[in-house]
Design goal:
- This protein has 336 residues and is an alpha/beta fold.
- The chain is built from twelve helices and nine strands.
- Helix 2 packs parallel to helix 8 and helix 9 packs parallel to helix 12.
- Bound molecules: pyridoxal-5'-phosphate.
- Pyridoxal-5'-phosphate (PLP) binds next to helix 3.
Length: 336
Amino acid sequence: METKAVAEVVQSGHWAGGERVASLEESLAGLFSARGAVAIGSGVGALRLALMGLGVRAGTPVVVPGYSCVALANAVLALGARPVPVDCAVGEVNPNPSEIVAKAQQVEAFLAVVVHTFGQPVDLAPLKNAGLIVVEDCSHGMPWNQDGTPRPLEGDAAVLSFYATKLIGGGEGGAVVTNDTDVLESVLDLRDYTDKAAMGVRLNDKMNDLEAALAQCQLSRLPSLVEARAERAARYRKRLSEMVPSKAGTSLPPEYPGRIWYRYTVRLPSFDLDRVMAQMLALGVQTARPVSLWVDRADCPEAHRTESEILSLPLYPTLGVVEQDTVVSALRQILS
Ligand SMILES: *Cc1c(COP(=O)(O)O)cnc(C)c1O
């Protein structure tokens, strides 16, 4: 499907600024039941332009999760604004919504960026009730209904990354999705510099049609990709709960309703993660520390603890049963 879609774009001669980008934008707006979407060249670009479109300027404090991709800090810093991290809740990968609100009040921030980390949804209601403007980073996933559809956009904007390994892969790329026509217009305007004044604000944040065609393929299969991930996560749970006792604090990821299984992570508080990763690799299994931290330990001790404890196991829609058994056996061998 992907090969054919890319070949068609190549043959069409419209490699950029063509109808694939426009149709991806339409599909994304549909996915979130939102007014519109603007395709962007990267996730970090989407975040930067969404923040700018929502009024973040030099010096503006922006509340962000402490256990998160360094892209978040970079998008904020690129605007001369100030990232203010909130620590994870104890034993969780996301902050408590009430902590996000408290931090925003403390630093007088009007806006918070929220990440549904590893596909695990954050409840936005307390943030909206407190009057915060919310940008939802849905690069790992968006809150998902039982019926196999995403729930409509709740934040003031959603941003996505279409980097190759994300939930929706396009090689590179990103998007801003919103119901706010002013934000749509300003993100669209900020996306490129052509025929506009030289101000150093508008760079080149466009996505091309080859990337859009790839992202569209994955988007059109999103419910089945999400389902395939959930099946594999359920299999991990079943096999791992048989073999990994809650020995030494080892725990499997929480099964919150509405979560997407972007990553399957185990917590190994009494093991040296680098050593486990090397041992897994020697048994033919590539694992990862999913986040490399940018926050100080003093500001976010829980994020640092999480970073030192969480191991991400292979999880993708085409992961086979035999491969999954290899992962489970390798982990059993190392942890026992
Ligand atoms: C990958 C990622 C980004 C950055 O996206 P790029 O397309 O790599 O710039 C931002 N936020 C989250 C949560 C991500 O996982």
